[in-house]
Amino acid sequence: MTEGSDEFARARMAAGALFVRGDDVLLVHKTYGDGWDVPGGYVGPGESPSAACRREVLEELALDRPVRRLLVHDWAPHPTEGDKILYLFDCGELGDEQSVILQFSELDRWEWVGLDRIDDYVVPRLARRVRQAHIAHVEESTRYLEHGVPTP
């Protein structure tokens, strides 16, 4: 392959925040798309995944939270959207829940959801990613995933 070739992957990147309270994770309900999701969104041109995560948390929840560490890196191509690389970051404690101000143009509510009920809220690929991110959070580790599944 030559540099600039169309044979190289051009993956979309997205970054999300994992807020944990015991066995519960914070989910937001989007007014478009698949409904429930973690706070986050696509990475912009020239923007790092961690900067995108911080920006999205500020936009969606009105919380300025620096990224503490990477929990998962997930290669998860989508049949209609092509190659995707998805990051979930630990953004610390949520803190005062009264401080959360939703971006009403995109979100209409948020909720703490137990991992035992995550399948009732999100699509399977996201459920796998969130579970693995929670494990990484507890173990203080980072996990590489493909389609939400750990690979050696």
* Main sheet summary: 6 strands, mixed
What percentage of residues falls in helices of 4 or more residues? 10-25%
Shape: globular
- Regions with pLDDT < 50 over 5+ consecutive residues? none
- N-to-C span: 27 Å
Strand order of the largest sheet: 5-1-7-6-9-10
Note the beta-strand portion: 25-35%
The radius of gyration computed from the alpha-carbon positions, rounded to a whole number of angstroms, is 15 Å
How many helices? The count is 2
Structural class, by secondary structure, is alpha+beta
The count of strands amounts to 10
What is the string of SSEs from the N terminus onward?
Answer: EEEEEHEEEHEE
Summarize model confidence as the mean pLDDT.
93
How are the elements arranged and paired?
Layout: E1 12-18, E2 20-21, E3 24-30, E4 36-37, E5 40-42, H1 49-61, E6 69-75, E7 84-90, E8 107-114, H2 124-139, E9 143-146, E10 149-150
Parallel strand pairs: 1-7, 6-9
Antiparallel strand pairs: 1-5, 2-3, 3-4, 3-8, 6-7, 9-10
Question: Which key terms come to mind for this protein?
Answer:
single chain, 152 residues, alpha+beta, six-stranded mixed β-sheet, four-stranded antiparallel β-sheet, 2 helices
Give a structural overview.
With 152 residues, the protein is of the alpha+beta class. 19% of the residues lie in helices and 32% in strands. The chain contains two helices and ten strands, in the order βββββαβββαββ. The chain has helices spanning 49-61, 124-139, and strands at 12-18, 20-21, 24-30, 36-37, 40-42, 69-75, 84-90, 107-114, 143-146, 149-150. The strands form two sheets. The chain has a six-stranded mixed beta sheet with strand order 5-1-7-6-9-10, sandwiched between helices. Strands 2, 3, 4 and 8 form a four-stranded antiparallel beta sheet that branches. The longest helix is centred in the last third of the chain and has 16 residues, at 124-139. The mean pLDDT is 93.
